[in-house]
User: Fold these one by one.
Assistant:
Number 1:
Amino acid sequence: MHILVCGGTGCRASQSEQIIQNLNTELQNTNLESDVKVVTTGCFGFCEKGPVIKVVPDNTFYTEVRPSDAADIVNEHVVKGRPVKRLLYKNPKNDYHVTSTSNIDFYKKQIRIALRNCGFVDPESIDEYIARDGYEALGKCIGELSPEAVIATVKDSGLRGRGGGGFPTGLKWEITRNVENEQKYVVCNADEGDPGAFMDRSILEGDPHSVIEAMAICGYCIGADTGLVYIRAEYPLAINRLKIALAQAREYGLLGEDILGTGFNFEIEIRYGAGAFVCGEETALIHSMEGHRGEPTFKPPFPSVSGYMGKPTNVNNVETFANIPVIINKGAAWFSKIGTEKSKGTKVFALAGKVNNVGLIEVPMGITLREVIFDIGGGIREGKKFKSVQTGGPSGGCLTDKDLDTPIDYDNLIAAGSMMGSGGMIVMDEDDCMVSISKFYLEFTLDESCGKCTPCRIGNKRLHEILDKITKGEGTEEDLERLYMLSNVIKDTSLCGLGQTSPNPVLSTLKNFHDEYKAHVTEGTCPAGQCKDLLKYEIIPDLCTGCTVCYRNCPVGAISGERKLPHYIDQSLCIKCGVCYDKCKFKAIRIA
Amino acid sequence: MDTIKLTIDNKEVEVEKGITILAAAKKAGVHIPTLCHMNLHDMGIENKPGGCRVCVVEVEGRRNLAPSCVTEATDGMKINTHSMRVVNARRTVTELIISDHPFECLTCAKSGECELQDLAHDMGIREVHYEGEKSTYREDTSPAIIRDMDKCIMCRRCEMMCNEVQTVGVLSAIKRGFQAVVAPAFEENLDHSECTYCGQCVAVCPTGALTEVDHTPAVIRALSDPSKTVVVQTAPAVRAALGEEFGYEPGTLVTGKMAAALRRLGFDFVFDTDFAADLTIMEEGTELLDRLTRHLNGDKEVKLPILTSCCPAWVKFFEHHFPGMKDIPSSAKSPQQMFGSIAKSYFADKQKVDRKDLVVVSIMPCVAKKYECGRDEFAVDGNPDVDYAITTRELAALMKLSNIEFNALPDEDFDHPMGESTGAGVIFGTTGGVIEAAVRTAYELHTKKPLPKVDFDELRGMEGVREATVDFDGQPIRIGIAHGLGNARKLLEDIRDGKSHYHAIEIMSCPGGCIGGGGQPYHHSDSSVLKKRQMAIYKEDGAKKIRKSHENPYIEKLYEEFLGKPMSEKAHQLLHTSYFDRSTVFEQED
């Protein structure tokens, strides 16, 4: 029997390490330590309910486990064979306890290819990876197949770049292969920078060998003997596990010289990024690795021709790489059966925001947003109304309920005014003000712009200032036109993908939520009630008893009135903190 | 040559393969405005970060607009450079730049020379539709250069000059997004950096973000002080460029008008740095011959090659980067400092003026000269040998301020004794000139024979690194020349690694030499201007009756009356200097 405990960053933050320690202690106490193995795995994805534990072979799935639950798990489940009912996942629809993951809505519609081993294997054990067909694909490639044949398989699979660009992976490999140069590089882009996105981190934390194996396969195909993983230094756990995995691969002769006796040499080094979003752009990433300022340069030349140190360099994202070994093992035909016509396979999304089940999911391309949000995500929290979903990270667009039945793939999302990005998906409900939301995203791109080109450096600043004006009730209808015009110029003239997509939240909300913008500028109101400056706290004289509670609690002395007589709020002093509203027992304060 | 055909604004053009849309448009007679782009292609210097996005054009079939300065023109391309979409984008981008720029045009040092101002004018911008926060930075004043980064537009030209051309590496972009700015490391001041004050950043800055420290108010004060005797010296490269400030074609020599104007400004004596250049040749040439003779006689201790030391930015460069080699350059002071030293001793004695009442002003093509004249070792009891150094640009401004109608002035001569110079002194203003001047003298002193031909064409040119072997009557003398500090670095590294085979090397910091100095009228990315100035310098040399420094009668007289002979004790005391180790040491703060 194995007890799999999630050792991802999220669950670790909720004491999963302590749970593991307690489980081991309990097993020792019951003299079962030789029969039952506690395994630290990568992320299960169901972060909402973490820390999560899975007991195999019976597949019992426990959620929201606390260190103190270790005793029950061992004494009840392991010793007596009875699942600990209170730790089982409860279906929110009918309150029934669900024992196995296959019966949980969150997992039902998922197909796990890139995440196949996350939550199943101990990421610090190469043997567990090998036991699940690990390094078989590498052996097959370098032992039996020509680089051309491998590239053909990757091309036929239809795999496209998962970092957001969606460029066909096999074609990229082929182009890099065809550039003649003695020295070439394989680069793994692990500079995951979208706020809230953690698919790359989870793969590196949960299944680092899959990336190592794929990089070696790529090296074999393009003719490179060196791989570089560019990873942000703020991913310590991923870095640590990657380091362990690299050492193990070297020890097993799966990295280094003459791999598996085939004469193929491949080594991987780690390069640390300082966490700049723009360094996810491949030219900026390469400059950063070279020790230069992390800012993009004009393409062409593409990295495939002139990349790291001026040498041909193939840059792929972590998730893209994680798909490769499966494609080699199961074949292009198997892979391309999943997905839509132009987008094959699956995509990992970091589902966040106002849904019931936030977490990391892997779904087949072509699944609809509705299925993701309402089936996997379990719908909107607190029974509120769905308003919008933003895909593609901070520079994606905000889609509405009319897009909910759109099958998700690269092209459909672009057509809808958003993008795939690296897989961020943030759900908003009726309480969210879309003007504030677009301002919020712009704040991020503003912070992360490298400042090299004018439209991104100054244009985004001005966009943000206009949005700020609107949320303060100082906007005009002319500002809306200006927002639209400036956004389009920024898209049209920016140097790299960051600037070219940064106005997407503004443009999509302007289009999809025009009335909400209009209300801000013409009526001076925020329909969602989020823009503080547009709110007004008023006392309803008929309901006010003159109890003076509001008067005594107002931190700025904005409330006045005689005892037992209706009170009054001086709007020029009110800071809209809402204390009076919360304190009033007579519902005599309203928000206008 | 492979060619391609493309359509630009409905006109089909055939151009060579591999060039950018911008270059192709130029050939088609279409002017696409640019801002960050700078091309001194003759000098192998190009700045094209593709950052300002002013030069965007519409390419049929392309999703977004293409920056024409970095996009390659390809066969069959259909380009529109002035569609509604392009004009709107270009205007918006320009307005955005202006929206983050101080509206100080009337009082800006760069007014009238500002490329952003020109762009706004050409695009007919009458209103800026974007208002908001402007970037503000602390002003940084150094001995020579002022950084006012509120005016920086992030074109990165200065960064390119500092890093790629000069390899000084002081300026680079720091911070991100709206806060991004070009600055020395840790946003320190320039005078805490390894900046050489070469001023090439100033020379290429399109706006007023980088300018020279203005010494003209101090000069005006000195001129109006009746107790002061004010003498002025003008560097050779100034006369080949000053006319540009008054509408003359580049390459027009204005030596006579300049002398007349300086006299009108009220200088008591109008002298010439060229005189001091001749003096430099006497000292440096003698030092070269001395080292050479000892070397040829088998002295293993002697340091060769000898390096010229006229350029203050170059001196500061090797003090920072190659302090271990500070005994290799000639110990001769620069002409500016030799002039100051002689003016405040020999000339002051002759005039019976106390050195404290003698003010020496120099007109230089250079901003580093401002720093040089302030170096501690070039002062006696705190009184500097040269009081103020103003640039060619500052001189033009001073003349305009003083109501001098430059174009209407007659040609006048310099005063004696320190105004007399030879052709050898004149060519100090261009790359290759100092070493040619030295060779003219060293040859005759060494061989005791007259030169068969005064012009050494093999030493002239614009290539960044040049070499030539000069026949000293059977003794081949190998000479290296570098202009631009990046090129100098290459030669220096060779010397350090024992790979250099030269006997003498001339180094000038600025591309083209002093004619391309940081204090010259702005060339606005037109390298032909530098070539024309160079031609003017050689023209003035060719027209001189005396063309070898050692034949300058006033120099002969100076040695006779005052110095004795070259490298005499007195000459050492007044005309030679030593260098300092300025290598950067990071110290931990307590």
Number 2:
Amino acid sequence: MSIATAPLLLEDTPLGPKAGGLYRRQNALVGLIAGVVLAAIGWVISHALLQGSNWGSDMVVTVTLTCWVIGFNIGIGTFNAPFRWVVGKDSTREDELYGAGVGQGAARYWKYCTDHKVVGTQYFVLVMVLFAIGGTLAMMIRTQLITAHSSFLSPGTYNNIVTIHGMIMIIATIIMVSGPFANFILPIMIGAKDMAFPRLNAMSLWVVVSAVPPLLATFVLGGVDTGWTTYAPLSVQAPPAMDAFAICIITFAGVSVTVAGINTIVTVSTMRAKGMTMSRVPIFAWGSVVSAALGLYAMPAFLTAMSMMITDRATGTSFFVNQLGGAGWLWENVFWTMGHPEVYVILLPGVAALMEIASTFSRKPVFAYKAAVAAFVAIASLAIMVWAHHMFTTGWAPNLATPFMLTTELISIPTGVIFLVLIGTIWKGSIWTRLPMYFLYLFLWNFIIGGVTGIYLSDVPADQFFHGNMFTTAHFHYTLLGGAMIAATGAVCYWFPKMTGRMLNERIGKTAFWFIAIAFQVTYFGQFWEGFQGMPRRIAFYDPIFLRANQMSTVGAYFLMLGWMILLAAIIVSWRNGKIAPANPWHAKSLEWKVQTPVPLENFLVDPVVTSDPYTYGEGVPDGQNEPSAAPEPELVPVGASESSKGEGAS
Amino acid sequence: MSLTTSEHESTEDGEHHHEYLPAVEGAENPGGEHESAGERDKKERLMIWLFIGGDLVILILEVFAWFYLRTLDSNGMWNAAKCTAAANCVDGLGNPLIGPVPKASIWHPMIIMSLAIISALFVWAAESASRRKAAKGAVSGPALAALVCMIGAIVVQILQFQVLPFTTIDGGYASVYEFFMGSTLAHLLLMGFILTGLWTRAAKGRYQGGTFHRVRIMRMFGVWIAISTSVLAIVGGFFV
């Protein structure tokens, strides 16, 4: 049933010529210009006043890039609302609609737009750009390592590239699910009209955008050759590029991720549709909330660590300088307070998205839903008690090695539960093997390897051998790339029709999948081989005994990159010219599939009331007949869901 | 997920979700938001709690850094207590250093702490006035007093930078102490910004019409600022 007379869509609301106020004149280009101008002013003033003093170069770089971040955000509109608020001016409903992109067409994607779907799409594109940069740097690393003494890169350049590759990939993977999907999909999934704080939502996006140029500027500021962990005292002694690196992290972790995490938690906690009790919340929402909560613990630690480092470098404090009363161990403790929870910040939303996929394509409820939620919470709780396993070889607190080994190994229990949930969900299901399911299978394979090899690294004696060698590199790539990023790719394939209104080309997608799936194993089994042989990480030249394993890994990496490029091509081609997607191509049950595509502003023209959990597959259907094509549409469809989509078969 | 549809739920204001509200002078953000005061309150309170939670992590790590470096006393350079002329200690620029590094005055942080606490109490008074729908002067008056206290705290904090008996290069104690000061100043500036908004908006009568919850979240944050300032003042003042 649908209600016949739909009200006026909000996006069709005529706005007055002054709606939006200052926002009308602001966009990314204005932000860029304002950022460059303010950075230039900051450079001139700081250079005149500070250059030549102690730590002058560091202070100049810090001031200049801080000005860039502030200037860009002034130009894009981040500060409009706070300053309007402080002088007692309020925005009108027209202003709010303008801010949400009404009447601006594609231009809204270049603006400080508050519509969560626009922010989600902006994040999606940003993540792809970051992966393209990080992937290119990875290819340069692997090219250098294809021979034992390659002259492709100098050792210094190689180290700089390793650092920036690591940091870009960390940034990209932190936002790869929580950015696009927790923004675009999550509010619809829980029956909300938008995120709890739409302006903060837009802020979280544009702050990341402003954080990326300082990171790339490190290449022209002398480079950061410390690795992304930026251990002191190396980082304290590094060129001024390290200041740029710190500005990037303070901006990204201290502001963007923190604000985004708060927004996610508040949205799910307070804006669920009527009837959506916590036991009816889709599992993806749980994964996003737990990840956001963990990020709220981890990212302030990153902010603190980087703030201390930048004061060491630019003002002469000595937090991390042993001979002056500081301690390199202090850096490691504070850094890894962030560093290990951050792995689960990355992983949990992706895994939760896979649970949605498993349920939808197996036509079964999520197996042991409550156990899955408990596992998320247990992982998050344990994740904050394991940081020192990264310090087994440093000599810090040897008496604590055993407790930290145990807490680390304990994490394998809730992680195992997640595996059981995924396998239990697809077990004996009416499996519909579409592209998202391919990535689910690949995740299961990769993550079991990543997980099992992680146990070796949590074991103190084994870690003495593997720490700092290529085994570790292979391990965390299996978890972060083979696990989290493959999960995120599955999520892309799953929600692509809802986000873009087009079906992803599965023929090209499957081609990409096979390249990725096989080349990934070649690349990282090669690195396990290197690790077993004892090859250290982060070296530009190596002994010829490691040659075969490195060649295997490099060839695999080239094909892996080819696979990603094919997938990117599938995304671009499908987005431009793909088959028009019906509202619910997968016949899924959660709310995001019950609204029309494209999703209207504020999502629901009639407030949904939820009367059951999101996974009611097979109810009232005899065993064995719960085929995907026979899945019933909901009896009542919210206004706006197109009639043509009802009962439409899967493409 | 089974679902049904409902007509728009009436909000506490008796308005419907999808109707456009015209801007109304004197009400808190009248046209820009179309949800009830209760819904907004719930969201904003949770947001503030989460923000405080994140800030608490920073506070804990700052205090951890203090006690960790103090206990480790690496190279005897926590406060250079054993650095005699014969010990050949040097500061961060390589200049000879004879310890111990003098302690910072206890009075500056105590004054800042007191002003932050008094400021929070004034915000509390403003909230009470807003809650009982008192005249707008009963809200804006305490708000202005809170702002003045906060500006006073900021000024004292800046002054303390001028009169410190050490500089950043004088070892662990000097480093962490000045970091505490920077952290405190950042918090005070943020609170000063918020209090400026509270005062200007209260003066326009924005907190008269049952919108005390907006003042309440500022009070929550003000109390947190007072707590974090106090913790840093006490640790920095009494645990050298």
